[in-house]
Structures are given as structure tokens and as C-alpha cells.
Design a protein that fits this description.
Layout lengths: L3 H20 L3 H4 L2 H13 L1 H4 L1 H7 L2 H10 L10 E5 L5 H9 L5 E6 L2 H11 L5 E4 L12 E7 L9 H10 E11 L4 H10 L6 H10 L2 E6 L4 H6 L4 E7 L1
Parallel strand pairs: 1-2, 1-4, 2-3, 4-5
Antiparallel strand pairs: 5-7, 6-7
Helix pairs in contact: 1-10, 6-7
Length: 241
């Protein structure tokens, strides 16, 4: 029979899952893909999208993301070509331009044209190429990039397989993927409600990655405190087999 401690743990997990269901937004599972894409485009093309960079700064995603590259937790040295999927306002790309080698080719994609314009304005750099693209149908040939970065975009797909498969396809063998994703935590549930996205269970997502030939090289934590508290969402370095 389960111990008293185990029973308490199970009850706690059930309460957490119930609270997560109440808070999170399940639109992605209730409407058609086409309708969902239209709604997401309106969100990012409107006032929320215009405030995305400011929101990322307030939530510390920009400074914490910068730390990942500055501390070489994810090392960009020697990388010749980088694809940033779902560039938004250019939050990750700003770090790529600073910490990648000077000759590295950087390509930015986003489903939203307004977000691409905001990224272009905010970055104010002639280095990146900007391409309107859907994560599930990337317009690049197989093995185009040494490295792919994807920050909080995969959760805008009902299932992770199409997006992960596309990113694996455009990576060269041995290429690396830096993936940030919203976790099925309390804070992740609120993110889901705000940005109309889903959340992921960490272990389940990693199993999907492995099944698609993306081996987890390391789980990355912003700080020791984030690791101790299991906070900050999912951040992993994956390698294409």
C-alpha cells in the first residue's frame, strides 16, 4: 500500500493538475488549426505583440536568456549558420548577434509579419535575414543550418512532433537545437492563458525529441536557484543524430 508521504504527494500532484486545468487556456485543442492560427496572428499582430519585448524584459526572459549565451551554457562559437524560429520581437536574435561569431549567418522567422517588422526595427541590424514562415512548414532545404534556436514557439502547435521534425530536418547532422518551452507548471498555466498557447510536460517532451532523432545533450537552467526550484520553464540543448 502507498505510504502516507506517497499519498500526500499524489494528492498534491492532483491538486496542481486541477489548478493547471482551471488556469490554462485550452483553445488550441478546441478549435481548428486554421482558426487557431488566425487568433494567434491577431494576438501577436495587435497590442500584446507590440508589448512582447517589454513583457519579456519584465518576466526576466531577456536577461536570463542573455545569461545562457554570455556564460556559454549554449556555446555559439564556431557556428556558421543559425535559424531562429519564431523570432517575435527579436529577443533571442539580439543575443545571437552579440555572442555568435562575427561572420555567422542569422535567419529570423515568424508566422506574424507585424512581429518580423518589430524585430527588424528593434534589432536595427543588417545582419539577419527575415523570413515569414510557419514552424510546421519551414521553407528551407534539409540540412541548411548548423544551429536552430526556438524560444517559446513550439507551444503554439497542438502537438510538438510537426515542429520538432521540421527543425530536425533543416539541421545538419550533429547540428544543435536550443529549445525553450512553456512547462506545465503554475506560471506556465498563466503564460498559456495570456498567449493562447499550450504547455508541455518536460519528460514527455524529451521523449518526443528522442523519437525524432534529437538527443538531449543537457538541460539548461538560468541560475542555481532556478534549478533548485525547478523554475524557469523548459530549456534544453538537443543534438541531431
Amino acid at each position: 500500500m502507498p505510504s502516507t508521504v506517497s499519498k500526500r504527494k499524489i494528492k498534491k500532484q492532483r491538486r496542481r493538475k486541477a489548478l493547471h486545468r482551471i488556469i490554462s487556456n485550452d483553445m488550441i485543442t478546441r478549435v481548428s488549426d486554421e482558426e487557431y492560427r488566425r487568433k494567434v496572428k491577431r494576438v501577436y499582430g495587435g497590442p500584446k505583440g507590440a508589448l512582447l519585448a517589454a513583457a519579456s524584459m519584465v518576466s526576466l526572459h531577456i536577461p536570463m536568456g542573455k545569461r545562457v549565451f554570455r556564460k556559454r551554457m549554449f556555446d555559439l562559437r564556431g557556428v556558421g549558420s543559425i535559424l531562429d524560429v519564431g523570432s517575435g520581437a527579436g529577443q533571442i536574435v539580439s543575443h545571437l548577434l552579440r555572442y555568435a561569431d562575427s561572420g555567422a549567418k542569422v535567419t529570423c522567422t515568424d508566422l506574424s509579419q507585424p512581429m518580423l517588422r518589430r524585430a527588424r526595427t528593434r534589432l536595427n541590424s543588417s545582419t539577419p535575414e527575415f523570413v515569414a514562415a510557419d514552424l510546421a512548414r519551414l521553407p528551407f532545404i534539409e540540412g541548411s543550418f548548423d544551429c536552430v534556436t526556438c524560444g517559446y514557439v513550439l507551444e503554439h502547435l497542438p502537438a510538438p512532433e510537426p515542429g520538432l521534425a521540421e527543425m530536425a530536418r533543416v539541421l545538419k547532422p550533429g547540428g544543435r537545437l536550443l529549445l525553450f518551452a512553456t512547462e506545465d507548471s503554475f506560471s506556465g498555466a498563466w503564460t498559456s492563458r495570456l498567449w493562447l498557447c499550450r504547455t508541455y510536460n518536460r519528460q514527455e517532451l524529451l521523449r518526443v525529441c528522442e523519437s525524432l532523432g534529437l538527443r538531449c545533450k543537457q538541460e539548461i537552467w538560468f541560475t542555481r536557484m532556478h534549478k533548485a526550484m525547478r523554475a524557469g520553464g523548459i530549456c534544453v540543448e538537443l543534438v541531431k543524430q
